[in-house]
Amino acid sequence: MVKLNLKAVEERVAPLGGRPSYDREFIFELLLAYGRSRGNVTRLRNGSLNVADDPTTEVAQKNVVYFKETTGDPLAVIDALRTAPAVVRYRPRFVIVTDYSELIAVDTKTGENLMVPIADIDQHFTFFLPWAGMEKAQYVAEAHADVKAAERMGKLFDELLAANPEILGDSFGRHSLNVFFTRLLFCFFAEDTGIFGENQFTNAVGSHTQADGSDVADFLTDLFNALDTPHAGDKPQHLRGFPYVNGRLFTIAAEHRVPKFTKKARELLIESGTLIWREINPDIFGSMFQAIVTPGKRSDLGQHYTSVPNILKTIEPLFLNGLKDEFDVAYDSRRKLEGLLNRISEIKVFDPACGSGNFLVIAYKELRRLEHAILERLAEVDVNHQMLYVESKINIENFYGIELDDFAVEVAILALWIAKHQMNAEFKEKFNLSIPLIPLRETGQIREGNAARIDWQSVCPNDGDEEIYLIGNPPYAGAKTQTKDQKADYDYVFGGRPYSKNLDYIALWFIKGADYIEGTEASLAFVTTNSVAQGEHVGLMFPMIFAKGIEVGFAYTSFKWENNAKRNAGVTVAVIGLRNKTSSPKYLYTDDLQIAATNINGYLADGADVVMERRRKPLGAPRPDMVFGSMPRDGGGLILSPDERRQMIEADGRSEAFIKRYMGSSEFINDGERYCLWVPDGQASLARSIAAIGTRLDRVAAERSTSKAGSTAAFAAQPHRFVQISYKPTDSIIVPRVSSARREYIPIDYLGPDTVISDAAFGVYDAEPWLFALLTSRMHMAWARSVGGQLKTDYRYSNTIVYNNFPVPPLSDAAREQLILAALRVLDVREYHCEKNLGELYDPDLMPADLRLAHAEVDALVDSIYSKRGYESDEQRLSDLFALYEAMTADEGPKGTNR
């Protein structure tokens, strides 16, 4: 497929717009405009690739498009087509329906819709950009109904707290309030979706209570009791129109008290009922309502969204894609379709950090949609198979969760019920058969408690043979940000097993998950902070997992876990899928690419299960050592500001011979200016004879003599020199120990012989420019990000782990010469932009085009040293690097050991 940029796609789609008429040739021209190969489109046109059910009116290619011509209403046609068995089977990215006047399209991955005159297609060319390999950064528009509902309920919550100040002091008060709000949410949704009569709940409150709110609590208590009463005759006359709900939601308990209402609270309740609750999304509203009742979490409701496409990154490769592949195989076989239906009816899904149930809801909906497609296809395959089920075989009792927050538990159960009702509505649209939601027969399998301490077997028993999938987005917390209770959780997970206190908190879920699935048919996929697969953390966590005979079956490498908020705050995460070792394919996902892997290691790269440890000397082609910069331990006596340097030289010109530029990470990235006194041992007496220097050396001696570190105190007798000296009077390369992860390239600079590198950076002395090119390449950046890890959101570099373990193949003289030329080109371009510091030059939003081009030349050159086939992703680079690392260390004994 031709790789096109945005401008090229726009130019290629432009001729398709504004035509007087259109025909079937439109879809083929559209695909070509986005870079689909001409041979591929020709085969689609002549029918050899067309998998459509009706090739006379449809054009379909697996994973790409399902296109349908119609003489009817395109909107009605696409509603039926988007969930049709053939679309489920072939998983096209886009479903398109047109009458050649209007065009309607659905992005099946993001859920976005396009409805435009076909002649305006050129004005909406960005909709189909995924065909050209350009994914959409924000998948789903803000759900206004959800936000507005959460805001209204937040005001009601605040008013009720003010009217009932004692409620939080009561041992059951907070739980009672949580249950009350969960019941309200159900009633609002029920009266807008046909579970109750239209507006039945809101109208009842408005009609049967006083305007001052004084009797609202009594009325709602009676109503909730009525909803838990099976027989209408046993209810008060004015409440007999309400159905029996049960299912634990309205079960009577002494601690479930309705709070007292004020006039304002009553008004807020009725206002909330006037919203259109049928538009509420159960997979996202739960998180927002949890924020409503959680102090300090209400500042930005949108922060609590989780986009469906991101959740699908977890469940699709874990089990959904495999089920759809099986559906494809079974498509023409009644027996196989019935077997698949029975299989999915027995699947259990378990989220041991379920929050408000987002992941469980999406998994439930996707399994229900697959069930609908199977039933629809069964009716087509076997005319005798017209007997449809009066109940879905996908039971919410098969969806399990653990959650620490009481309100989130209640909302998760409610969200599953609402999801069930919505899927029942889809079932009715397809088969014209109603599956009533109430009375609620399923009570859910969501357990309140600390998942780090609860035995997961007690929540979702795993007998070893059942098909169980663990999913979710467990909590992250680094070693320095964990609470006292979180730190105490470690002993519950590890028992007597040794562990490092530097493990991220989310590691507890991976370890417990590995324990749970070991030797069984179960598997898992968790969203995780990407730092668990970088740097030191790899060696702390993955060996324990791999020792159980468990492997990484798939992984999404680092990506932004973005939400649908206006301010779209995101964190960089990965998705890691674990399973017992099998011969089944393994895949890495990156930049919308699926890459087959032989083995996925703890760094989420296709390579051996190695762990990078400190290495004393560089691996591979000979190159100079990288060392810590020089360390003064001087109390500031040897370090000079620009003004102090100037004043010292003005006072005595001899001092200039003892002053050098002093540079650490901050100075060279941000163009800061510092200096240091650098006095050779043989010139210490001369330097001390200069008054300003002598005063400073006395200060250094006094500071060192009081140090508790013996190694520092010993240098009090030599105050003229740094305690640790790495400096050499040669050209050097400076590498920051910490650098912003926003940058595509870690800023690395080439320094002259008169600059001393501080201990805030690393230095490579006697460094030729070819090494500069190697270190500034994308190849080396990929390695540094993977094995170096991060400090908060910054890259953390290490000379012994990153630099010394970086495998460099033998370099010919010609290759070195080419690298030198490419390095000098980068330095020349930097000099051309000398008015900007390196921080500005390497800001991804500000990086000059000519500097990008110079780096691209370096990247291509270094890539060619490692492979002649070129690379499409950093994951492919890492695969080759780990393979080379394994080959170079093969004679060292156990993988990853030091030599």
What does this molecule look like?
This protein has 899 residues and is of the alpha/beta class. Helices cover 41% and strands 13% of the residues. It has 31 helices and 25 strands. A 9-stranded mixed beta sheet has the order 8-7-6-9-10-12-11-13-14, sandwiched between helices. It has a 5-stranded mixed beta sheet with strand order 1-2-3-4-5, with helices on one face. A 4-stranded antiparallel beta sheet has the order 15-23-19-21. Helix 6 packs parallel to helix 11 (282-292), helix 8 runs antiparallel to helix 10 and helix 14 packs parallel to helix 15. The two termini are 45 Å apart. Mean pLDDT is 89; it is low at 137-144, 299-305, 564-569 and 895-899.
Q: Using only CA atoms, what is the Rg? A: 33 Å
Total of DSSP H or I helical runs spanning 4+ residues: 31
Q: Average pLDDT value?
A: 89
Count of distinct strands: 25
State the major sheet: 9 strands, mixed
**Principal-axis shape:** globular
Percentage of residues in helical conformation: 40-55%
C-alpha end-to-end distance: 45 Å
Strand order of the largest sheet: 8-7-6-9-10-12-11-13-14
Question: What structural category arises from helix and sheet content?
Answer: alpha/beta
Report the portion of residues in β strands: 5-15%
Outline the low-pLDDT stretches: 137-144, 299-305, 564-569, 895-899
Characteristic terms for this protein:
single chain; 899 residues; alpha/beta; nine-stranded mixed β-sheet; five-stranded mixed β-sheet; 31 helices; 25 strands; 13% strand
Provide a quick synopsis of the model.
By secondary structure, the chain is of the alpha/beta class. α6 (144-163) packs antiparallel against α10 and α13 (334-346) runs antiparallel to α14.
